[in-house]
Amino acid sequence: MDKSQKDTNTEQRILEAAKKVFVRKGMAGARMQDIADEAGINKALLHYYFRNKEKLFEMIFTEAASKLFPRINQLFTAELPLFEKIERFCHEYIDIVKSNPYLPLFVLNEINQNPEHFLQKFWKGEHKPNPTHLLNQIAEEVQRGTIRPIHPVNLLINLVSMTIFPFMAKPMLEANLGISADQFNDFIEQRKKEIPAFIISALRP
Amino acid sequence: MDKSQKDTNTEQRILEAAKKVFVRKGMAGARMQDIADEAGINKALLHYYFRNKEKLFEMIFTEAASKLFPRINQLFTAELPLFEKIERFCHEYIDIVKSNPYLPLFVLNEINQNPEHFLQKFWKGEHKPNPTHLLNQIAEEVQRGTIRPIHPVNLLINLVSMTIFPFMAKPMLEANLGISADQFNDFIEQRKKEIPAFIISALRP
DNA sequence: AGCTTTGTTAACTATTTGGTTAAACCATAT
DNA sequence: ATATGGTTTAACCAAATAGTTAACAAAGCT
Fold it and tell me: Which residues in chain A are closer than 8 Å to B159, comparing Cβ atoms?
């Protein structure tokens, strides 16, 4: 094991290894041994730092979800004109997910496999997305006639779908459009501007 | 065990049970015992009909993917005006997924956990989505000036994202918007018309 | 130095789980 | 009735995997 590893905090190394393995393989598919190997340590040490698999997983999942959700809230609740808000959401959110492209699929999948557990236990306070502010804002603009009539929830879902879905379909897109990981990144990068333009164009009265 | 179960073909009962469990828990999370229980049979009988877990899984996965992908191709390759094609895609595809709401997340997740395996082994011929026809069609309309300039791939991804993503986020949407499964269905149903309208509006020159 | 706390390991245990075996069951043909 | 062949089961086995223990090493403290 090289110095750079030994130097680093063991707990941190475990968390990074666990994240890597859990996000790739999911809670059920991840092996404690693999996490230990990835961290370059003994399996027993894993249990020394984190009592069991579930505890370790919850830590990773919480961290992952914390990266994904609270920022949504900030963006949704900000005091900004609608179009600017849409632009900023796309821009910032794509940046977040771009550096963790597998997070959305991971989180949504685990939620799907155990909805009660996560949605009841984990979604408290700041973690729970609260889109009401944005929804009201959309409804206002519709009423004022500045944008085409649209059910606010539809617009919200369209925005989120177009932003997040490409990451979830990443392996398929790369294989099917015959593009490399780099090209995928370029494609995503360009969508920062494309998605808002598309939405704003759709909303022209 | 009631008559209705005993009557049905055992193999069919197993496949249905396996689908239920695999789709819910994923390959790694599914337990052969659970599948046996769900089918109301002995675990050994599972291995009598399907040699092992992998074989059984592959059967389910293939069936699932066959339900999702080939239909896309038919719709993409059809000889229809662009807008009509978009409308039909939304309408028909939402119908397909509506009766199997967990399929997209299941399939994308398994592909993600083992891209080489599935994309190389499974994507042959009709299974492989081939969007070139639709992409050309979009490019033509752009050149002709009948729709706003847009990179065809972006439009394609927007269409697919808005159609499929809501199903993947179903548990989150139900919990977060405080809606029931029935209301979710209503919401999805209404999007059959909403998504095409949104896209067509965005494409107005 | 000696003592205590913290970090780390190899070897082990317990449990889960995929898969097997041999016997029982049951319908049907002879 | 009974032999036959496909179907089903209870009991078992082996491999994989989460978790434990006990000994040891390193670092801190008096």
Answer: none
What residues of chain A lie within 8 A of the CB of B164, using their CB? 161, 165
**B44/D13 CA-to-C1' distance in Å:** 14
Report residue B5's pLDDT band, with 50, 70 and 90 as the boundaries. Answer: very low
- The pLDDT score that the predictor gives to residue A92 is 95
User: Which CATH code, of 3.30.365.10, 1.10.10.60, 3.90.79.10, 3.90.950.10, is assigned to B1-50?
Assistant: 1.10.10.60
User: How far is A101 from A168, CA to CA, in rounded Å?
Assistant: 8
A165 versus A117: the higher-pLDDT residue is A165
Q: Cα separation of A53 and A30, whole Å?
A: 9
Contact criterion met (CB below 8 Å) for A153 and A159: no
Per-position DSSP letters for B29-61, written without gaps between them: H--HHHHHHHHTS-HHHHHHHSSSHHHHHHHHH
With a cut of 90, say whether residue B124 has pLDDT above it.
Answer: no
Summarize pLDDT for A126-155 with one digit per residue, the tens.
778 889 999 999 999 999 999 999 999 999
Q: Say yes or no for a CB contact (<8 Å) between B168 and A168.
A: yes
Residues 6+ apart with CB under 8 A from B88: B75, B78, B80
**CATH code for A62-203?**
1.10.357
For chain B, how far is it from start to end, CA to CA, in angstroms?
62
CA distance B25 to A162: 26
DSSP character at residue A50:
S
Q: Select B61-203's CATH number: 3.40.50, 3.30.1330, 1.10.357, 2.160.20.
A: 1.10.357
In strand C, the nucleotides that come within 7 Å of a protein beta carbon are 7-11, 17-22
What is this model's ipTM?
Answer: 0.91
Q: What sign does the dihedral A167-A170-A176-A179 (CA atoms) show?
A: positive
Point out the nucleotide closest to A45 (alpha carbon to C1′). Answer: C8
Q: Do A29 and B24 touch (CB under 8 A)?
A: no
Separation in Å, CA of A3 to nearest CA in chain B: 32
What is A1-51's CATH superfamily? Homeodomain-like (1.10.10.60)
